[in-house]
Amino acid sequence: MSVVLQIYAIIVTLSLIIVLSFYLFHRREVTRLSQKLQTLLHSFTHAELTLDFPSSDITDLVNALNELLRVYHKQVYSLQKKDEAIKETITNLAHDLRTPVTAIQGYTQMLLQSPELSEEDLDAAAVINERLNVLNQLLNQLFEFARIEADEMDFSYTTFDLNAVLRSVEERKIIPALSIAEISFPFYGDEKAVTRIFENIISNALSHGKSDYHFSSYDDNENYHFSFQNFTDSINESDIDKIFNRFYTTDLSRSRKTTGLGLTIAKNLTVKMGGSISASLNNNVFEIVVCFPKQKG
Q1: Is the Cα torsion angle 13, 19, 23, 26 positive or negative in sign?
Q2: Which among 2, 64, 86, 91 is most buried, taking Cβ atoms within 10 Å?
Q3: Packing angle between helix 56-112 and helix 2-43, nearest 10 degrees?
Q4: How far apart are CA 156 and CA 294, in angstroms?
């Protein structure tokens, strides 16, 4: 009887070992497949999921996931091609329009200097010249955006003072309230790019803000921070997540003659300089905060 019990115990033990091994194998295989799936989703390759050991109950799942991966990669590729076509169209459009606009500006300026025109004609020529200046600025912004998106911008890296750059922008624009830290904020990057970042954010605030402008800088152990605040009645909470999207503007009538690219360019340049940018809205006070990392050591 004791022998039978021993044999029974051995069979039960072996069965448990087999069941446990089967469970652990499947768990490990599922974990491996999950990790591989995450890798494939971000690698945009044509590789597919495979099983280390054939298993009928997992094979159908793997085949279904591979089919989804093929559809996903096909859609991503299609979107990338469309995006590249849009960027190329923007570049060509901006380039093709700049030459005739510049020529028209030249003729308009000649008219403004003509002694034969009446005062009424001179006023009309001045209006035309002003509108051409706005159009030229919009085209330049389109061209700049296309170059940034295509990684065609050449950056010149030096060490400079971020606060000094903000002060230089302040000298060219009327800024009601400016609180810049007295100390220097040394940063290694492209000074022209940072100037463009500050100019675009401040121009956006002065164009779309209503009042209570306040621009400031401060730092902590890790970063330099630049805050740009203004009161607004044209921005809603739903706009915040889209505020840095290209061509996005809360001015649906586009009466302010903007492309909706200023903040997009600011964000792209900030990221290329190793920084971060965010927007928030609190009690109708719109704020953009730009952070640049301090140099280590």
Answers
A1: positive
A2: 91
A3: 20
A4: 18
Which of 173, 275, 270 minimizes the C-alpha distance to 215?
173
Concatenating the DSSP letter of every residue in 150-193 gives: TT-PPP-EEEEEHHHHHHHHHHHS--S-EE--SS--EEEEEHHH
pLDDT in tens, the chain (297 residues): 565 555 555 555 655 655 555 555 566 766 776 777 777 766 766 777 676 666 666 777 777 777 877 887 788 778 778 777 776 776 677 667 777 878 887 878 888 788 877 888 888 888 888 888 777 777 777 777 777 777 777 888 999 999 999 888 877 665 656 677 778 899 999 999 999 999 888 888 877 767 678 888 888 889 999 999 888 877 778 778 888 887 666 554 444 555 678 888 899 999 999 999 999 888 888 899 999 999 865
Report the side by side order of strands in the sheet with 223-231.
Answer: 178-179, 211-219, 223-231, 285-293, 276-282
Pairing state between β 223-231 and 285-293: antiparallel
Closest by CA to 143, choosing from 92, 194, 107, 185, is 92
d(CA 9, CA 12): 5
Q: Is 117 exposed, middle or buried (0-12, 13-18, 19+ CB in 10 A)?
A: middle
Q: Is 280 helix (H, G, I), strand (E, B) or coil?
A: strand
CB 243 within 8 A of CB 266: no
What does the buried/exposed string (b/e) look like for 64-78 if buried means 16 or more CB atoms within 10 Å of the residue's CB?
Answer: ebbeebeeebeeeee
Interior angle at CA 129, CA 123 and CA 134, nearest 5: 130
Q: How many CB atoms lie within 10 A of CB 31?
A: 10
